[in-house]
Amino acid sequence: MSVTLILGQMLWADTTQPPQLGWGMAVEGDRVVATGPHADLRARFPTATLIEATDCVITPAFVNAHHHMYGVLAHGIPTPPIPPLSGGGWGGWPFLEEFWWPHVEDRLAHDLIAAAVDWVCLEMVRSGVTTFYDCLEAPYAIPGALEVEAEVVRRWGLRGVLSFEATERVSAENGGLGLHENAAFMDTCRARGGLISGLMCFHTTFTCSADFIRRAFTLAAERDTKVHMHLSEGTYEPEYSLAHFGLRPVVYYDQLGVLGPHVLASQCVQVDAGEIEILARLGVHVSHQPLSNCEVGGGFAPLPEMLAAGINVALGTDGYVNNFFEVMRAAALMPKARQLDPGVMPAAVVWTIATQNGARALGFAHLGTLAPGHPADLLLIAADLPTPLTPHNLADQLLLWRNPQHLRGVMCAGCWLLRDGIVVGVDEEEVRMRIAEAAAHLWQK
Q1: Where are the domains of the chain?
Q2: pLDDT confidence band for 83 (50 / 70 / 90)
């Protein structure tokens, strides 16, 4: 197997450590085999294929820890007016029951799902995301919906963790079909191998009974896999949980005995200090979606407080704004304004959330850093900023003033998905036309 040397202006192999000037890396197959100064790498691998990227910074690729790829179909769709604080805003029951469920999720079919996944994979490659977790919500598209997604993701060469959001909101029978969709998909992925995997997923406390939730965790435990649920995206779920169980949602889950390091909870916007303590103590992973939290009127998640408590917090787009640089900026800047403190959420911390924290949340032990033996998932980011780019300001400069158009290369598992700023082997206009046709079909209904 041949070796490729990628020689950058700087290598930021581990976002918790300083970047290295004049360093690069060697890639063989799908793995990093060496990092070091250019001269050392040239001497060690004299016959390697050489990629001169001295006008770029090499960083780990991004991990999008919470996505709804089908959501792109509804971007810009006419929506009913949502009064302030109406049942928790967009994340509350009235909006879900009266609009989102009947007019979007319940009308999804396999062809619409495939078109959405194709477009969003293009968005992710262009945005530097090589690993992602997706939560599909389409109760009348099962069975088989996850395999539809997987077929498209495999073609793109991305590392995808796919799940179906099982819920009893349609019926107990449909909820069971959702759990089976996840379990069967996980079994298929393990038998097949490759970059696609699955996990167990259910919706929330207000659409799933206690027995249903326990069943989801049992199926996951039998497969030694993680479980995902939405948690307190707005005020509605805490209010519902207090009214029906006399407990806040995290306390309720704790009393069910299901929380632990195998849990990935998304949103966690309306959680209080006691709930944060429980999540931290039990090792629950959290995915944070700052821009979609604003869109649905859910509030500002206590991101610095969760990090300070020791919770592993990852970053996600939620299928809303899929420019990962924009989402990172939101994660960095919103807490500064909320806490009136410019020192909150340093840029390097946000880069860590967007890379290795996301990998850890999804169960990838060696993803998110570039070290020998680790997956070769990397970005080449143009270094042509108007002011000097140095190790001390690299994190801030890249976070604040780089965007997808500044990506020169995106590699996943040793394969280039984007080279010289161009997506490899894809007719982007064809993909765009397909999603436009699918969205128009959904909107007509």
Answers
A1: 3-60+368-413, 63-345
A2: low
Phi, psi of 256 (to 5 degrees): -70, -15
Read off the pLDDT of residues 294-326 as tens digits, 9 standing for 90 and up.
Answer: 988 899 999 999 999 999 999 999 999 999 999
Dihedrals phi, psi of 288, to nearest 5 degrees: -110, 130
Q: Given its phi and psi angles, is residue 62 left (phi above 0), alpha (psi -120 to 50 degrees) or beta? A: beta
HSE-up of residue 120 (Cα within 13 Å, Cβ side): 32
**Which overall architecture, per CATH, does domain 3-60+368-413 show?**
Roll (2.30)
What's this model's pTM, rounded to 2 decimal places? Answer: 0.96
C-alpha span between 135 and 149 (Å, rounded): 11
Q: Measured between alpha carbons, how far is 52 from 64 in angstroms, rounded to an integer?
A: 28
CATH of domain 63-345: 3.20.20.140
Beta strand pairing call for 313-315 and 407-412: unpaired
Tokens 């599909």 sit at which residue?
136
Q: Which of 115, 107, 1 is nearest to 49 (CA)?
A: 1
Residue 235, CA distances (Å) to 87, 165, 242 in order: 7, 21, 11
Tokens representing residue 404 in the block: 């997808």
Q: What is the DSSP string of 361-384?
A: HTT-TTTTS--TTSB--EEEEE--
360, amino acid identity:
R
